Amino acid sequence: MKTVLCFLSIFVGVVFAGDDAAFAACCKDKNVAETCQPICKYESTPDDVTKAFAEGQCNVETDGSPFYQCLENQKDNTKCCKAAGVGADASLDFCLDTCDGSKPHTYDPKYNGCSAYAQAIFDCGKNA
After folding, report:
1. Which of 57, 36, 45 is nearest to 122 (CA)?
2. Where are the domains of the chain?
3. What are the residues whose beta carbons fall under 8 Å from the beta carbon of 62, sequence distance 6 or more?
4. Residue 114 reports pLDDT greater than 80
């Protein structure tokens, strides 16, 4: 039993470490600013990300799109986001754009209104 638990702990640790390593590598490959790269990990919270962009650690115009592409594992996670309720309010359906990491998107101030969906967007990227 101890062997199984030990293996499970190692496996879970490797899986989650791999996700963060891939996220960090993606940010580096996409030239996310060095000052912004510390938030390129799934243990960062939506509040950490908001703070990094608000305080200038990250530049919304140059780091925003590649950060979200990396967050979403460069995959289109729109289905996951829809299932999690992202864009359920028709006036915020554009928030689904941030769930599609398969392509870059241009920053628009309207995305600032997507904070209610931030955790779901993060979770879909982490689980992709």
Report:
1. 45
2. 2-126
3. 33
4. yes
